[in-house]
Amino acid sequence: MPEAFTIPAARGAALEAIGLSKRFGAFQALDRVSLKVPAGEFHALLGENGAGKSTLVKCLMGFHRADEGEVLLDGREARIRNPREAQALGLGMVYQHFTLVPSLTGAENLVIARRNAPAVIDWAAERRRLDAFLDRTPFRVPLDRNVGALSAGERQKLEILKLLYLDQRFMILDEPTSVLTPAEADEMLGHLKAMAERGEITVLMITHKFREVKAFADAVTILRHGRIAGSGRGLTTREMAAMMVGEAPGPDKGKAVQPLRREMPRSHEPALELAGLFAEDGDGRPALRGVSLKVAAGEIVGLAGVSGNGQNALVEACCGQRPLTDGQIFVNGRDFVPTRRAFDEAGMFVVPEEPLRNAAVFGMSIADNIAFRRFEKPPLSRRGWWLDRRAISAAGRELMARFRVAGPSPDAPIGALSGGNVQRAVLARELSSERISVLVVANPCFGLDFASAADIRARIVEARNNGAAVLLVSEDLDEVLELADTVAVISNGRITYKAPIAHVDRGSLGVYLAGGSDG
Amino acid sequence: MRGADELRRAAEFVVVPALALAISAAIFSAILLAMGQSPAAFFQLLWRGAFGTAFSWQNTLQRAAPLILTALCVALPARAGLMIIGGEGAFVMGGLAAATAALPLLGWAPAPLVLLLMAIAGTAAGALWIGLVGVLRHRRGVNETIASLLLAYIAVAVLSFLVEGPLRDPASPNKPSTHPIGAETMLGPIPGTSVHWGLVAGLIACLAAHVLISRTTTGFAIRIAGGNPHAALGQGLPVGRLLVLCCLLAGAAAGLAGFFDVATVHGAANVSLVAGYGFTGILVSFLARHNALAIPPVAILFGGLSAAGGLIQRRLGLPDATVALLEGVIFVTLLTSETLYGRFAIFQPRGARQRP
Amino acid sequence: MTDAGLFAVLVAMVAGAIRVSTPFLFVSLGECLTEKSGRVNLGLEGTLVLGAMVAFAVSYHSGNPWLGVAAAAAAGFALGALHGAICRLPRVNDVAIGIAMMSFGTGLAVFLGKPYIQPTAPRLPSLPLGDWLGIPSLALALDVSPLFLLGIALAFLLDWAFRNTRAGLVVRVTGDDAAAARALGIAVDRVRLVATALGGASAGIGGAFLSLFYPGSWNEGLSSGQGLMAVALVIFARWQPRRCLAASLLFGAAGALGPALQSIGITAGYYFFNAAPYILTLLVMAGTGSASRAARHAPGELSITR
User: Which of A8, B66, B224, B268 could form a disulfide bond with B277, CB atoms 3.0-4.6 angstroms apart?
Assistant: First the structure.
């Protein structure tokens, strides 16, 4: 019989992290972060994308090893070298993605997760024990059905049940409610809160939702740029938002690129109009739930949002990589169906995130990849069918120089380039056209150093100054605020906020980012 | 600097397969020694039977011809990211359609016209057969590997049904066949040789496939769609249509091979068409790394192995399956050697090593 | 058609279903196990033929057909292990290796089997399950091989093991989600290696049936592609061992229908009955192809169902 059942009153542990630091190359992901979670506490960890939350919990769970600092578990120093050691010490984690095996039933998932599962499983006995175990938890999940057939809420409950079943009573939850309805989320968090109050578990929850923090957390720690931005009990939404997104930028920072930006005559007709877009994710769940947005020529609409709120689906829907279940896209007033001719005639260009995965062919050369938009046109081909490989190579060389793509030669495979250079090569392709009417860009500077990011942002503004309608989808709020004429927020597949940049204040924007309502 | 890098990469494509062939030879020598045979004598005879004389060369090329075309049936879709393993079906349907198309013309139409129509019918039948696989993939999401395999079996059943039923020539009691097209209609060999024209067709088809893939805009689009379908959609490319196009061309190549088998060897459609050319073609294409220009040499290598079988059997008293076993050993070791690419630092471009 | 004719056809179908289905059963159960672990083995045709040859040779030399069956299983195990060992190397294509292994296995069998084409070896005994009926034709049909019963037992055993043993669950986890399997501490490659080897052993036994029971002799054209079609059969059976049994009987009966009809003078459509299972499988795939993976019941890691 596993330990979980022999110790009826297992206790949640206390955890303390002291001065954790972690560098990835030149990037300081964590900078002397300290955190104290007493036994039985429900502790929330807040922060924007890239603030260091994931790095912190991965250091606690042994996925990463901190460069400096130490971790105390119930007051004793714990050296956690890998996730298995963390689990043995009673630390468990629920990830944003599910880790249950979809074709197994709930009961099978639980039993196989056990280190000491018997060679032949006596299901009658196992079921008796599982039922007894379930009786001591507040969660009700059908254990006889395949996990793949469960709802997201049931699966998430089962993930938590698995931690309890394995006696991992310090629970790290990474945005556990992102896939749940508000009612499901409240039910689940309510149960966890009650268990924490009884001292049965300790919870450290990463979240973006202030509502959940206020309703369930005893204490909160806020990270920003790898450092503690604040912590405490009973903070107001405004206080938390201010800590999370930082102070309003100083006058000089906000104006850094302003001189680049020309006043544009506003046309009344939008160059890009998204009209009630609906789309599903890979598993058939709704990803876009009626996105409507207009972008005028010479305007940058910066679409902010916490990752996973439909941004991917939106960009993919715009460029034909994901079918729409409903809605229409208009470019220059005409219905846009993403065929090659339509892209060309509309002057529509797209720079998706992770370009090597979404917009490039690994095995083809840099020059070939740069030629994707116009390979069937002169001078890259003759009479529309015969490729001029020399011209493609020459055009690639020229654009590599113009967009500062550092690579061995235009004929080298693009897969040999670094991430930043792939990004520049794709930008060279999408931004080098004479007439860009619509430009959709997603997280263009993700993971790039400061100089490259500034260069790429300047080019996006340049496209806008030349009259392009730019939809900038970014999870970096600073980037949105720096570049956008109009700021919008996407949350749970819907546009929940839209205002001209002059009317935007960071604090209230933070609230919209964190769940849409001003709770 | 760049030239040196390219030389290194090219050397890798020579050294790795050569190493694999050497290992195959070593394994096979061990088998021969275990059977009390001399490996030296075996490989000497193998060389003589495959490439040693003008006669053996012709025999080799004759056997390589259908392999070239059926290998193309794998290589073209592979460039579009599809794994088709049912070239056998297109080959059979091509031969059957060619033989059937000749039936109403025999006796009155001139031989060149009959042959032309046969070639068209065979090519079209093969194209439709594999094209169906592409359509099923595109429209219904059916896995092309399994669909093409199933269709290969269905093709053999269609052939058996027709040659034993409606199309059976009453004069073929022992081996049910369609009505023979007759010696006067059959396609003769290339003048001065005993090699049939399928070899020329295969070489032309390989050249055409190479030009299509690497020199035309359509081929460029196919490479994008095959390399990253998601990115291809983002470029507005008609990915589904490109896939179906590749399948059609692939099937056409195998169907053409079927036509040549009927027009030059059998003179009629019967179960002799089911000789496994489609399956060997898969391996030829893989060993050529789906590169159309590399297909003929690989096909000739395997054509040579099977051509030498008879000589080895007669001289050494070994079973005629000896070369089949050798082929199997080579297939397995060569495909396994794929894992060696990129493992040897000496072949890596110098520039790539300092990449950030 | 007279009642007697109908009866004759039915009896012939039952007999055919039992006889023809046995090799199908063993290769499909083997393939099912392999695919459940997330790997495809297209080379079972070679395993089947090699199994047939080895079983015949060992039975011939030892005089004990059961030793032949064991040797066939061992030979299949070895080929499967080789396939599994090669496929775990990076950049090696499992479909191509499968076809190469088919070529290798067949080549090896034909090469080594040359001396065994003429002689006769002790065959497996049969169990007269239908004698008590007193109808000679039915008694003949029910004169089944113990291997057939063993296959049925294996189907139920696999079905039970997938649900009720740790090993079975480990195989299913590995086939459905390799990342989750690694998180559970499962050595994914090793599980697949063992599953492929055991799958090969099962296919080898299928080969032993061919050479030691029906048709009961060894020659090069012994197999009519049962090994290659195992993949289709497993898809048709939705990766469930008990349905593999049903599908094998169906494939066997379809194969037997043609000759049965021929025996009472109906010759049309002979080959279409042979092809019917393949057409049916294709239709099933086209019907469910665009549906979600969950609806297809396919192991998530399988390359051929993506």
Answer: B66
